[in-house]
Amino acid sequence: MKTLLQVDNIQKYYGNKGNVTKALDHIHFNVEEGEFVGIMGPSGSGKTTLLNCISTLDSVSSGHIYIDGDDITALKPKALANFRKDKLGFIFQDFNLLDTLTGFENIALALTIRKAPAHLIEEQIHTLAHKLEIEDILSKYPYELSGGQKQRIACARAMITNPALILADEPTGALDSKSARLLLESIDYLNTSLGATIMMVTHDAFTASYASRILFIKDGRIFNELVRGNDSRKVFFNRIIEVVTLLGGDTNNVL
Amino acid sequence: MYFKLSLRNVKRSIKDYLIYFLTLTFGVCLFYIFNALEAQQVMLEMTASQMEIIQMLSDVMSVVSVFVSVILCFLVIYANNFLIKRRKKELGIYLTLGMQKKTVSKLLLIEALIIDFFALVCGLVVGTFLSQALSILTAQLFEVNLKAFTFIFSSDAALKTMFYFVIIFIFVVCFNTYTITKYELIDLLHADRKNETLKAPKFAISLLLFLLSMSSLLVAYYLAFKNGLTNFNIEFLIAIFLGVMGTYLFYVSISNLLIKLIGNCKGLYYKNLNLFILKQVSSKLNSHHISMTLICLMLFLTLGILSTGLSLSKSFTKDLERLTPFDATFSRLDTTDAPPLSTSLKASGFPLDELTESYMDFNLYESPFHYSDFFTEDIMLRYGENFYNFREDTAIHAIKLSDFNQLRMFCNEVPLSLQAHEYVVTSSDMNLWPSIQSILKTQPTLTRRTIELVPKFDTPIDLSYETNFFSSNMLTLILPDHLLEHAPISRQHLNLNYKGDKTTTEIAFKESFDVLFKTSDEFFIPPITKIESYESSFGLSTIVTYIGIYLGFVFLIASAAILALQQLSEATDHTKRYELLRKIGVSKSELNRSLFTQIAIYFFAPLSLALIHASVGIAIANDVVKHFGQSNIAVSTLYTCLFLLLVYGTYFLATYFGSKHVITQKK
């Protein structure tokens, strides 16, 4: 299998001389094509910073990130925008759908900014919508949709351009458990049936249990790694819980 | 304590307050300038009658100022409302911390007080400087010299300005307090998270409304054209009502229609950010159709007032030379049996011989012909009711040939000879010339009972038989003496030229008439003098020009400021949208382009319809302007457009850069 994402010893500092916060401290890992990687960690561990660096929204202080062979830390702003447009798909915690556009148009926008030919757009969207079972909500505006429905539209938007990597930042964070489960089924479908490579940040063990491999981050360092292998999701979930307990229940800090 | 917080708030949100501050400053500045007119005249060398005009001008200005202050009040409340909206979250936090709504209102009051105070000071300072410039303009308009340049500060005008702004301030504070008490805490805190609810009406309804709007606009245009600007009758009111309604419906329906139209054009719709731009603009238009309508109407007024005001003022003065061939003219109406005016005047003790170098009596007779004998039916219909009052049963005025020749000799011109069956047409109103010429060419024979006359020339003569400040001679015939032998005298005129120095004689002349006016009730129509005509024409034109500039400026600033405020506040509300677009890979330049397009469309939307309204309005007004004298409205329209481009363009650019700053500010 091909290595799609290579994070090579990156560091990220905030602040200035005398008052430096290390948000990412020598992080190093690879993601293979078709993998579903979860990133877990407590608040302030640096997982969102990591995601921002990979999604080119933020720059690293040192180290390199290679996606599909391109070193994204060396790209100019204009090239970065193009890179995001062509290679990445985003799913956000608060959906980030445009209020003024219908579900269909929100998905279409991802295609129009890539200058896709107009006649293909509708066909492509309907095909994907059929697979994700969101056809009946396409013509609705975000304010008419539930959180889960909005997030599934957002999934479709992330997927429609066939990105090399889909980045999901706490996708279930604003959803109730039923909607979260439905959404995760959709994301799982993207991964297993459509072959999307997904990297998902979450601090919810249940959400994380859908991933095939999980990286745990604490204080800017990789703390642990879990691979699901052939475990059932239930077994995998319990293993995650164990690590989370360890992560959160660091006895050294408890007097 | 609260003062400190308020002061810091002002400092922190100085950028947000900028347009509010600018608009207030502009308002104060304009207000001061136009109210300080009277004080400014000190540095000008003016005659008594010019002083009177200035006095009148400043009276008119103070009336207009009340109107202006109402507009400014609305504008300031509007701007303030946007500011509160922008800071909802912050206000929400104050309330959560346990502050009372009353205290929050007080906080806002102090903030408003600080801003208003600075705006007042800045406005007065700028206004004081600019009013010196206006004095120079006044000097030019009145064609008088500056005595000596003195820097003038009118405390009256400043006090008046302050007074009006205190009232506006009180209104703003009341409104603020009301708004604050209306809000729920939860809405304040979550202000930035609220989704917009888009309720796009059905396409069929929009189409219906659009058609309704078009038809009511067309009917309004038709009625306005038919009526002109001279009679304010019920039809004119209907035209205004339909115009306003049509404009409103236009903005209600247009966005939905555009979406449907462009949505069907897939190539365009699915290109780059077009989809996003279109939906953004249409949602804004949808939620702002009332302010769009208002702005459109204000721009229309600005364009109309400025271009007609400026050209009207020019047309007032342009024809004066032609229309005032004598130094003065006495007139008397309905005087069939009266002796000539000069005789009556002398009999009443008026020192005619002492004051004048030469004078001549002159009668206008009622000719045997009626207007309908000369004009064709369609001309009668066109002009009959409107400004000329050509009625079927009214006799055309006529001059005896011998009187006309005397008049010519008086003006050192060659006399005219006429045969018994000939007539000549005269008119000093250039607008009528084409109609008269066409008649003289096609059906020139004038018939009434047994009399039949043919014209000597195929074109009218430009004749002003009296001194007046407008084209008083619409249509007058010159007829052979025998035809008017027993005709009733319609008007008596006495034309005269002064002896010696014109200005000093004018004063003596006026004084003598005042004496006469008091002692005798025979001469109740005051004489019209050349100097007076010039001055009153200047006065009228100055008043019209000043009102035009004043109101035009206020309307223009109001509309541009409203648009700018809406755009800026929306740019803030929509920061998230742009951030998302940036995340999914839209480059910065493309984002800026989309922002530019949006603002451009938004600024152009009210302007486009206003331009159409204005061209119709100006075409109608042109007819009226022509009536006062020949003038080319095109030049002043051009000036107006330049002026509009400048102010509107400045606000547009300020908005674009402001919005760009807002959306790129956050990472």
UniProtKB/TrEMBL annotation, chain A:
> A single Gene Ontology molecular function, please?
ATP binding
Carries keyword Ligase?
no
The residues covered by the ABC transporter domain are 5-244
Q: Which InterPro entries match?
A: AAA+_ATPase, ABC_transporter-like_ATP-bd, MacB-like_ATP-bd, P-loop_NTPase
Superkingdom per UniProt: Bacteria
Q: Which SUPFAM superfamilies match?
A: P-loop containing nucleoside triphosphate hydrolases
Instruction: Output the PROSITE patterns linked to this UniProt entry.
Output: ABC_TRANSPORTER_2 (PS50893)
Q: List the SMART domains hit by this protein, alphabetically.
A: AAA
Record GO cellular component, one term: membrane protein complex
Keywords attached to this Swiss-Prot or TrEMBL record, sorted alphabetically, are: ATP-binding, Nucleotide-binding, Transport
Family label:
Belongs to the ABC transporter superfamily.
* Protein name, as recorded: ABC transporter ATP-binding protein
From TrEMBL, chain B:
Its annotated compartments are:
Cell membrane
Q: Does the keyword Glycosyltransferase apply?
A: no
Per UniProt, residues of the ABC3 transporter permease C-terminal domain are 63-174, 551-665
Pfam name, any one: FtsX
Q: Does the keyword Transmembrane apply?
A: yes
- What membrane topology does the annotation report for this chain? Multi-pass membrane protein
Alphabetically ordered keywords of this record: Cell membrane, Membrane, Transmembrane, Transmembrane helix, Transport
Gene Ontology biological process: transmembrane transport
Q: Which residues cross the membrane?
A: 17-34, 54-79, 109-142, 162-181, 202-224, 236-259, 292-312, 543-565, 599-621, 633-657
Identify the GO cellular component terms for this protein.
plasma membrane
PANTHER family in UniProt: ABC TRANSPORTER PERMEASE, ABC TRANSPORTER PERMEASE-RELATED-RELATED
- Identify its protein family: Belongs to the ABC-4 integral membrane protein family.
Any idea what this protein is called? ABC transporter permease
